[in-house]
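hey so i finally got around to running the thing on that chain from the lab meeting. sorry it took forever, my laptop kept dying and i had to restart like 3 times. anyway pasting the input first so we r on the same page abt which one it is
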Amino acid sequence: MRFGGAARVAALALSAVLLAGCASAADADQTKTDLGDVSDTHTLVVDDVERSYVAHVPEGAAAGLPETLPVLVVLHGAGSNGARMENATGLSSLAKADNFIVVYPNGTQAADIAGQLAWNADGCCGAPRRTQVDDVGFITAVLDDVEKQFPVDASRIYFAGFSNGGMMSYRLSCELGDRVAGIAVVSGAFNVADCDRNDTTDVLIVHGTGDLTVPYRGGPTNERTAARFGQWNNASVADATREWVARDGCSRFPQTVIDDEITRATYDECDDETKLEVITIAGGTHVWPLAPVNGFDASETVVEFFGLGS
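ok and heres what got predicted. didnt touch it at all, straight out
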């Protein structure tokens, strides 16, 4: 771990609870000349609907102006929201330490419980899919707004998503073209019916073999999740891997390292110096894994994979 402290360990140990719990962020305006170590909620009107996102700008950004910074856009799973995702992952703490901007957009109402949001990720989930919410248009508006307000390196915009947010990350990689420098998908599935993107991108896949919500080997979600968000079918991790091996032009035979329950498959010789890594957690369930809970920290792995600390 990059930095210790009992407070962070205790907070991260609650990740599974916080991904389903409540949190809030205060409304505030933010400009390029007023940057501090804060998380503020920003609102946009897209298709006549008010939408929002939480932005965390590290204090170090102020000292580096007019230097531009990379951006990590983090997409919550179905039934959660941006503020909960911020609290659960600890990524804002890593952004403070490594000096990058992190953004947590909010989906739209997924079910009949206030604060439970989801994305229209092409196949899943809930009301956003049924009503065909234009979440690609919303995320595009978020990127435009972030680039207008903050000192952004537009060539280094990355997405990390959990579950339905991971599925949305796959969809954005197909539809936003070179605005997406890389994606990290945790417990998600490549459920995009028609992906038009042909260019390369960095891809990190993290998935547990014990996941019943988005099964590692593909197939329908479990009955409990289907009762909340509707039934859908998931592509397997192997399907996603084959897709990106082909798109990134990587060698079909990865360098594999096994460390207890963690298997890392790194695919070499990818086109345009892109990266593809698949991390399998033996017995891992449907969570954003963090070191205090199970010995593997997805948040730090995402930051390291995208080189956000450099």
